[in-house]
Specification:
The complex is a heterodimer of chains A (824) and B (221). Chain A is α+β, with helices and mostly antiparallel strands and 824 residues long. Helices cover 54% and strands 17% of the residues of chain A. Helices cover 35% and strands 29% of the residues of chain B. Classes of the chains: A alpha+beta (824), B alpha/beta (221).
Chain lengths: 824, 221
Amino acid sequence: MAALLGSSLRLLLRDWRGGELGVLFSALILAVSLVVGISGFVNRLQINLERESSRFLAADLVVSTADRTPESFIARAAESGLARGETVTFSSMVVSESDEMFLASVKAVGGAYPLRGSLEIEDTNGQLTANQPNPGEVLLADRLVQQLNVLPGQRVWVGDAELVYAGKVISEPDGTSGFFGYGPRLMMHTADIEATGVIQPGSRVTFRLLISGSPDQVSEFADWVRPQLVQGQRLLTVEESQPGIGATLDRARGFLLLAGSLGVMLAAAAILVAARRFGERHTDHVAVMKSLGATSTTIRNLYAASLGWLGIAAILIGSVLGWLAQSAMFIALAEQLPGEINEIGVSPYITGAVTALVCIGFFAWPPLARLGLVSPLRVLRRETTIAGSQRALDLVLGTLSLAGLMIWYSKDVFLTSALMGGIAVTVGLGFLGARALLSSSRQLGSRAGSVWRLALAGMQRRGVNSAFQIVIFGVAIMLLLVLVSVRTSLLDQWRLQLPEGTPNHYLLNVAPQEADLINDFFTDKNVEVGRLYPSTRGRVMAVNETPLPTWEIGQEGPRQQEANFTSGAVMPEGNVVLDGEWWQPGTTESIVSLEEGFAQEIGAEVDDVLTLRIAANEFEARVANIREVDWESMQPNFFVIFPTEVLSRYPGMLLTSFYLEPGQKPVIGDLIDDFPTLTVIELDVVIDEIRAIVDQVSQAIELVLMIIMVAGALVLIAGVTASVDERLHESAILRALGARRGRILGAIAIEFSMMGAIAGLLAVVGAELSGWLLQTQMLELDYQPGWILWPFGLVLGALVIGGLGTYTCRRVVSVPPIQVLREV
Amino acid sequence: MITTSQLTKRVSTADGDLEILRGIALEIKRGETAAIVGASGSGKSTLLGLLAGLDVSTEGDVVIDGTSLASLDEDERALLRADKIGFVFQSFQLLPALTALENVMLPLELSGASDSDQRARDFLDRVGLSERRDHYPRTLSGGEQQRVAIARAFASEPLILFADEPTGNLDTATGAKIIDLLFALNTEQGTTLVLVTHDMSLAARCGRQLVMQAGELEEAS
């Protein structure tokens, strides 16, 4: 064993000295560093962005309960070493010393609240702080201070509790999560909750346990708590509480994982090409060793051990390079990235090492394992070849292992299948097409000029190898095209999601008689205001006369639902009818349109008859259609819509949305002064946040794309280099026979350009298939066939491969022929 | 030392089976030197491949030092070669990534010799290349490369040495020196030598001359 390790190390060092290992070793290092770099970067970026967006929850994770948070949850969080905070929210009438009363949205905070993001408080001296209220104190929103007419140090009553006004709430990180709490904010300490006496059985109170910690700890806690949740208890994550941010993050993660998976595939392709070349170059060596008495077992052990050494070295060097690469990416992005940068962790290194092992085992080893089968007779007859029966099996095993690796890496079977589908089409069509074209090109070539004849004859003579090269080029170009096109769609989609002027404020509780006044107010202030939607709180009581159980009774299946009802003659923009039909304007028929998720919750379908209640009025309406709503649009969206004439029979309020420029913020103060009963919801922070995240992720994506491009280029170089030896020999003979260098280089350029053109065309076909699957199914983006890609792929393939091939092979006409001929 | 009986080799071609060797019977005794001569394509190299166990016959058998090659599989034949057989090839067959010294050490390492380094140095001395020990094949002349190959062949002290056109790639003067070296070492070690050539003067230096013609072997008169 020790002797084997020693001699394999000697073999390796000798090969290294002889320059035999360069490409294979670089490809392995590339694979490891790519995986470590990208997965490290993706992990860190994801954690960083989640942390940043988690300030909307004021935590990494929230357990929301309708009753007091179970002690067991708190104990478990404490045990796991997680940071904890709590909030209790409810609506309550608040009374001041001057006997003013107002309905406030009360939030009691305790523990380490807020765990993420920060509070902005103005104390009674006008100083800005970030401190939560002390027991016995209240902090009030500016509006509430005005309504209650309260001065610093005066008393305020919340239920039975007497508290002291100690400052103003300017902003709170989780102010927009679950924003349908009406009334201005009153913030107090949880220690005073008991004294209020407000919390009684049946009162509408929300208790929240806020959790933060390392991603592993948090997800472990989430996994523990999830199965124990009962009716009225929910787990809130950033994704759920802010669908806009959640979807943006999801897509970004999807894209980066896609990029990482492509990186692995490209690296595997590079290793395959390099190992094949290594194997071919070693065939003669092995024949000599066998003639000198080496058995196939000796040969196999020797190469296996060499590969082992190579793998260990590649894992070590690749890990270091990967670490450096992702650090460089983070340094480049440092200004855009919020918050502190977390550690990379061990998982990227493990991923990198496993990738190296899979690549070695399934891509590098098969060509070397076959060296054991080399016939020693080759020392007498060079044309003796290796029995090649195993190649198809190698390819199948390699593909399966790669699919397994990708599933493990991206945890996404669909992504893997979509890419594998595209690759299978490229490879399948590639081999068929390449062979057919190669055979017909020979006939063409015999009628063409001598440079062309030389080129086509070269391509044909290398038959299987040419087809293999075309397929490798095709796969590399395909993967790059997929990535570029997905990235372009993704960035376009993001730009469209939040165009300039997206409404960033909602206005609720507008009385119908105030509508004209409010319109005038905004016209005065030069602010464009959106459509006024009727908004009436209502409840679905029964479907087809079968009463629905209430929430409190609680059981699986359909139950009563409360929602804001609206009405309109036309369907809101961005909605799509999934079933049934939208109504004619002016209809007086008692019909209703439902959002698809809402319809599912109450168990209703088109043509079912609903029993609805608004205040004390009960009435029936037939379901006319079911809609899909774009929840990411930031436009007012409704679960339940009636024809205008139907809802106008019942009392209700209006709501609308408007866009304020950053400098127009004081408009809100004026609005509240003029219309004190209005509720304004400020979404500008959320929208700015989404924009910031999109910007950061876009930059990260461009960066990752560049790295993958480099990887792709390396595959192409490896592919081109693979045939240099053979060309060197050919060129030497041709030049010895008097061929001019221009003619030989011309033939090489034509040969590579033709292979590149075929590969480019194949790549476009595979990329269209993968791109369509990925964009429509995984990233939920609109897909448009890139017809422009077809001629582009062909020309680009010809230019890039032609140029790269000619450049790499320029040596074959500069090395003196005698040197080449003497070596062989 | 080497005995063959009814040794036949057929290969399949597009035009049907082609018989390259036709029932060859041959006996070469220990320490003998034998030259196989014949025109190109007469089957000389095929016969050499079979005798050295590099290839398998279609019919018949080769017995080397009492061991029937037909009863051995590829790996067992390799072990037999490591133990008893050395080669000198027309195209030298040195490994380009290894230095002269490492090339000579290779068969010694493969057979697990503990003093491979010292023995390789000794043999390079004896072929007059101690100064060139650390040179790679591409920096050596053809004659020097063949001397390295001869050192490699004799370093493992084989019972039988097969030489395939050993002077085929060398000029006359260099070829003559190489042959002198080959025979000197052969005499010194008492090796059985089987030499394939179409050079009649070289063949004349061997104790026996065998003529290969159309797949059949005859003793030259």
